[in-house]
């Protein structure tokens, strides 16, 4: 296949029938940028290719001369930018007109008992290639690509022999030309198709499930065949996080959403609230959303200690029943935190339980009480100066007394204290969010001119892509003749 098309798949840094939780749109602008960048990359790669030997024979009226052209390398390549287009509900077409090469290599001939050799220069002019590929998906959710059409023609070949008895054979170049043109022309499309098959095998070998850390993996198989229009290609991905430990499916499913196009960008990505909620559920089902808090974890700047004496300001009977004892707080999520998105903002609902125990001198932990804390936060996110920025504010927090071994007590003062503590924590968090976090860079490309918009049910990211000039992988067939 004409390798510049493969750059398109690099940009897409890939259970049918379900709603995709992640949507990706590659626009024609992105396709043309990939074509432009790919042309220069392919031209550099071609200069490093050594072609396979070309052997044959030609009749020079007094007998057959057998020849071999070996060590064929490219000295110069005139590679016009190809024309690459989306084809409605099919895939891509690629065409190149006027591709020319200057080659050099060694020649050997045998004519009866006479053997000779030397070097040669060859120029191949006006190679035209048109190729069409079908894009689809396999049962495992991998992007698939297959050849549906290829046509190639070679305009002319010029050859100059040096060394040995080249002066004898040079007049017979016109006999070689037709054979060489035929050999090249007959091999172009098979090699294009071989490259397409190699690319398809590469795509089938790609992971569609990744371990994010020791707790979660991320499933991103295609949920259906690509939706291709003349102006863009749309991919739907599963986009679900799962607990590596429990493998439990979340008790909710991805809802359908429509990712609107924002004109002028190469790439659009929509991430639904399902994706974030599946990550939250994965942590919850794995038992990761809990923590034990003790007095040593209280920052020295806070004039409060986690003991029965300090807690007496909120629970009067506590220091009377258990005087001078340190305390532990077992904090745990009662259910998975849930995200929801609205135009311009996101909401996070958190439901927490806190089990308090007193620590006696012999280390025995005495149960005291359980509190239920329900809170809601509103967040705003944006991308500016190449950074992800945002802010979070507390909407509401309520505290309810659960089972209590020390009797009933009022929770108003504790609730106010928790609200005050959350306010201080959010103040520090917002200071960091205002500074922002630099957007992650992909291995071979980075996002530029990026815009983030929060919509109902999903977050939309619109961006251009810049191919990095270093550390590009080489994916190019080394046999074109």
TrEMBL record:
GO cellular component: extracellular space
Protein name: Bactericidal permeability-increasing protein
A Pfam entry, by short name: LBP_BPI_CETP_C
Family designation: Belongs to the BPI/LBP/Plunc superfamily. BPI/LBP family.
Matching InterPro entries: Bactericidal_perm-incr_a/b_dom, BPI/LBP, BPI/LBP/Plunc, Lipid-bd_serum_glycop_C, Lipid-bd_serum_glycop_N
Lipid-binding serum glycoprotein N-terminal domain: residues covered: 26-246
Paired cysteines (S-S): 150-189
Domain notes: The N- and C-terminal barrels adopt an identical fold despite having only 13% of conserved residues.
Molecular-function annotations in GO: lipid binding
Signal peptide range in chain numbering: 1-17
Residue span(s) of domain Lipid-binding serum glycoprotein C-terminal: 261-463
Primary location recorded for the protein, binned into one broad class: secreted
Role: The cytotoxic action of BPI is limited to many species of Gram-negative bacteria; this specificity may be explained by a strong affinity of the very basic N-terminal half for the negatively charged lipopolysaccharides that are unique to the Gram-negative bacterial outer envelope.
Subunit structure: Monomer. Homodimer; disulfide-linked.
A biological-process GO annotation: innate immune response
UniProtKB keywords: Antibiotic, Antimicrobial, Disulfide bond, Glycoprotein, Immunity, Innate immunity, Secreted, Signal
Top-level taxon of the source organism: Eukaryota
Subcellular location: Secreted
């Amino acid at each position: 296949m004409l390798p510049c098309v493969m750059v398109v798949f690099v940009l897409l840094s890939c259970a049918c029938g379900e709603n995709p939780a992640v949507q990706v749109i590659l626009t024609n602008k992105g396709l043309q940028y990939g074509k432009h960048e790919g042309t220069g990359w392919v031209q550099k790669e071609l200069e490093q290719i050594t072609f396979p030997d070309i052997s044959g024979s030609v009749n020079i009226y007094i007998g057959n001369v057998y020849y071999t052209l070996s060590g064929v390398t490219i000295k110069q390549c005139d590679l016009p930018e190809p024309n690459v287009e989306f084809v409605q509900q099919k895939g891509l077409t690629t065409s190149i007109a006027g591709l020319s090469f200057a080659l050099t290599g060694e020649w050997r001939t045998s004519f009866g008992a006479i053997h000779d050799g030397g070097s040669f220069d060859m120029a191949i002019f006006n190679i035209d290639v048109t190729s069409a590929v079908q894009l689809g998906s396999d049962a495992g959710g991998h992007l698939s690509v297959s050849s549906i059409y290829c046509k190639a023609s070679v305009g002319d070949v010029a050859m100059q022999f040096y060394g040995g008895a080249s002066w004898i054979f040079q007049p017979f170049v016109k006999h070689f030309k037709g054979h060489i043109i035929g050999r090249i022309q007959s091999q172009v499309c098979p090699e294009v198709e071989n490259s397409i098959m190699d690319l398809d095998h590469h795509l089938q070998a790609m992971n569609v499930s990744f371990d994010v850390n020791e707790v979660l993996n991320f499933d991103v198989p295609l949920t259906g065949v690509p939706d291709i229009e003349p102006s863009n290609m749309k991919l739907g991905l599963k986009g679900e996080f799962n607990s590596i430990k429990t493998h439990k499916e979340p008790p909710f499913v991805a809802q359908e959403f429509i990712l609107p196009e924002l004109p002028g960008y190469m790439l659009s990505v929509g991430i639904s609230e399902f994706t974030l909620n599946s990550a939250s559920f994965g942590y919850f089902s794995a038992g990761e959303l809990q923590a034990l808090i003790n007095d040593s974890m209280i920052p020295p700047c806070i004039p409060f200690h986690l003991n029965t004496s300090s807690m007496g300001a909120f629970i009067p009977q506590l220091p009377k029943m258990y005087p001078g004892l340190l305390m532990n707080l077992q904090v745990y999520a009662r259910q998975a935190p849930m995200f929801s998105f609205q135009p311009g903002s996101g909401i996070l609902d958190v439901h927490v339980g806190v089990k308090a125990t007193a620590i006696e001198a012999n280390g025995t932990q005495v149960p005291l009480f359980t509190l239920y804390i329900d809170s809601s936060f509103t967040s705003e996110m944006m991308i500016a100066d190449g950074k992800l920025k945002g802010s979070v504010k507390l909407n509401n927090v309520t505290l309810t007394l659960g089972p209590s071994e020390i009797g009933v007590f009022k929770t108003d003062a504790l609730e106010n204290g928790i609200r005050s503590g959350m306010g201080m924590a959010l103040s520090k968090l917002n200071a960091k969010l205002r500074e922002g976090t630099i957007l992650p860079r992909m291995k071979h490309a980075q996002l530029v001119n990026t815009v983030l918009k929060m919509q109902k049910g999903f977050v939309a990211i619109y961006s251009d892509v810049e191919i990095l000039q270093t550390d590009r992988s080489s994916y190019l067939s080394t046999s074109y003749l």
